[in-house]
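ugh ok so i messed up the first submission bc i forgot one of the chains. this is the corrected input, ALL of the components this time, i swear. 649 residues overall. if the numbers dont match what u have on ur side tell me asap before i send this to the collaborators (the ones from the other lab, u know who)
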Amino acid sequence: MALTFSSNFARSTTIKLLGEKFAAINLTYNSNQIRERHVLNPKPRLRNPTWFTKQMKVKRDELITRENEAFIQQAVQDKYSNVTPKAEIATNVEWSPKYQRTGVIARKIGVYPLWLKTGEKIQTTLLEVLDNHVVKHYLPEEYDPPRKRPKLIVNKKHCLILGAGAGDPTLFTREYCGLFNESGIIPKKILARFFISPEATLPLGTLITAKHFQVGNTVDVRGKTIDRGFQGVMKRHGFKGMPASHGVTKTHRRPGNIGGGGEKGRVWPGTKLPGHMGNTWRIAKGLKILRMNTKYNVMWVSGQAIPGETNSICYVFDTNLPLRKPEKPVPFPTYFETGSEEVPEDIYDESIHRFDDPSLIFKEQK
Amino acid sequence: MLCFRKIPITTKGIRLYTTVVKEQIVASSTSRNNLRKDVLNHRHVYPEFLPDPKIEFRNRLREKLERNDMLSRRTHVNIPEFYVGSILAVESSDPHSPGKPHRFVGICIQRKHCGLRAQFILRNTIDQQGIEILYEMYDPSILKVEVLKLEKRLDDELLYLRDALPEYCTFDTNMEPEILPEGSPVSINDIKVKLKPKPWLERWERKNLKGLQDLELPERFYKKAEKLATPWEKYDLMKEYMRTIPEEEQLEIFNEIDSRLEKLQVQSKKMKKRVFVKPTKLA
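and heres the new structure output, hopefully the right one now
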């Protein structure tokens, strides 16, 4: 006791001395002078989201016997074999067009044609909805956007983290596996973040299937475009190039003139030039769901220009185009099985000719 | 490039069975081999069921769904076995002539693409005018596909008929179907086609075509063709592998759809018996 008392006494004396010193300094210090550069809107600090941790462990030769390996696998299986959602889905909220539902993680699996009832052929892209589970749920205060502006919460939506593609937990890092502790699901390879209205909240561990969407509605698809590397101006921006003959030498695929002279004698910012093409996030908007297979969780979506290669991951969500938002109620907050109704395996849009229907015959209109 | 893929039967497929116990092999090897041959015969009859071998476009689930759709379309229209060089009659409905099915008779000069995008081109000369129609095989507006003459030609593509004398691709529109006894092999028509003098649509002398008569070109054309030829490509195993679906996978695919295909065949035979049209007088 005595020791602590003496140390406290010593500290108080030093603080007193410092205060006297500062008082002396303040006499000479001009408080109006600004030494630092003043910035009105400081540049946002780049920060990773909380779930953005290192995913894969460094592979090492761990000396585990075969029996132990089998034991680990068994333990993993036991832990994750029967995981149920943490709570029941709230069914009391009625859908309203202003509510924002969650999206899903999907895989682009190919392109093939469908025929309309008018006989017209259209191209469709097949999107396989993966085993989406709710991993985390953030309130607007909890959720820290990567580029945060101080004292200003712009985004007042809740945030839902979905995971898809079950992985081997022994290959992931400890921190990454920790993300899934709360929901109890097996660690997933792919994570995605979707903003939702507070009403569209889903309990952790809920499975989201393709039936979350409805045939005939419109969706947006976000994906990473095919990486084409460093490309010339003809491929990157669709320039025409120059003639192949008639005295043209060495400038068949070059851009030609890139600017004027005089006062504007420089390359203007934004000039289309050769450079890296692809590998950027793009959103294909306003795609209609034309067909759905509920057994394999596959959606046929109009168009063939969805960003990304075949077998690449994309994110599908309700469209934000104002005129194409759904008017009729959609499964809210997501589709849940009531058990009474039977969902057919193949659901087609009205305009599409089913493959198991007889051939088209056009009748005379009178 | 070509829809009809010639895949040399290698020991690859046989390797599948080496893991089975030896006794079993002895007992059922012959019957099994026969079954395998039957299944693999499908690749000539139904080439569009094999997916695009380009690896960046492949996905098993997509291919399966596509095959299912193809089969369910085939339950409503009988698409018989035919090859490039066979003479077909296709009946289709046209939105511009409602109520009247449109019938076209011609020789198949090309089959291309696979899956639901499978296409074939029919060519005929009508009123001294060469006519070609490209049909989508799984287009729901196709009502009937009839093979009038089932045969093959010496080449995998007959696009040179566009530059040939018109008599080589003129076929009677009221042609009667030639009915062959069941199980008879498909004959190869070794007719040699005479081309019109140049100009042509393509440089046919460079295509290594067997169904053409002497082109009567100056020596320099043949020399150039020889210079540009790539006769070593057929020995390029890697290229062959990239261009084709491996035999094991073909077996897997056709085993999956074999029962449904058989059902369709039985169905089409029944349909054939029921429909009997009295032959009409040719014009």
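quick check: The longest strand of chain B covers residues 102-112. that seems consistent at least. The domain at 12-191+247-274 of chain B is CATH 2.30.30.790 (SH3 type barrels.).
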